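REVIEWER CHECKLIST
Item 1: Sequence provided? yes
Item 2: Single chain? yes
Item 3: Sequence as submitted:
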Amino acid sequence: MRFWRRGNTPEPAPATPQPTARDGAPATPSGPGPEPVSAGSIAEVIAPERAPEPPPSEHSPPELSPDPAPAIESMAAPAPPPTEPAEPRGWLGRLRAGLQKSSARLTEGINTIFNRRRLDDAALDELEDLLISSDMGIGVSGEVVEALRRTRFNQEVAPEEVRQALAEEVIRLVEPVMKPLRIDMSKKPFTILVVGVNGSGKTTTIGKLARQYRDQGRRVMLAAGDTFRAAAIEQLQIWGARAGCEVVTRPMGADAAGLAFDAFMRARAEGIDILLIDTAGRLHNKADLMGELQKIVRVLKKVDADAPHSVLLVLDATVGQNAHAQAEVFREMVGVTGIVMTKLDGTARGGVLVSLAEKYGIPIHAIGIGEGADDLRPFEARAYARSLVGL
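Item 4: Structure as written out by the authors:
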């Protein structure tokens, strides 16, 4: 599968394929881009011929003839070379750009601390404070500092060496949770329940997943389970139209568990491959809303003991360490099986993903760094770690 395919070397991102039309609706054609404009020839401007002059008068002094002016070869400026269409930036380049706020903070701090300086206790203390302020957490920051103490203590180290060592330590910590979301096609519909607090990006994440699964030829259905907000239902319908997916809805304020049941039964009857269920923004301190979320899980298990087959927790990277509280509560309430981290491009707190991995060990399936469907990609430990420290 393209979306969850793992690779060692990120390739340039392919152009986003157009969604397949569903139920006979025509797909939007994708015509060829404009051809490069070739430079035209430059016209030469020739000086006009002079009219014949009368013979000089005997009483008139001879006139001095000026030197002939050089012919003007061209009055036009040279045409610029044809403009080639810019190559689309690959995923690694977009990831680096997305994590620029986080990497700039770390790079600047490390450069300041280790400018022609030995790795002594004072330098390590400053580094630990820097890592904690970058939301890597106290535990992770302490581990990184101790690893450097064991290998480089009392040596003069360059900032580049410190960043390299930091990247390797981050890779060691997050690689165990680098697990793609695998779709078991023996379970139809493979049901994915998407949870998270308000504003985390649940609905947008569902839309991106639907688009990518449809591009892989899967039959996808969406369920608008956030019945508290009309805007959430409308947003999911827009994403469904883009991806060519059926969207199951109910009136605003309807029972979300009942909607999930209806969507599952319809998906099963229609031979749908993947069912993505949106949920309301359950604030982690609202017991009644969390209870309703548990009800959705109970109802699904009545029709399929294994459903939901995946429970994705969508976390907003901009909330920093508050993501820990959200992960704790959702894990206890509904058995989170995987994490999608969004908005990494909008924060200097990109290190929070490291502390989440170290503390909870929940698989990190994907990260998001933009609004496009291709801006949600499988989590790659090495690419993330090196981009985080600006390598």
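Item 5: Key structural point noted by reviewer: Residues 5-88 have pLDDT under 50 and may be disordered.
Item 6: Recommendation: ____
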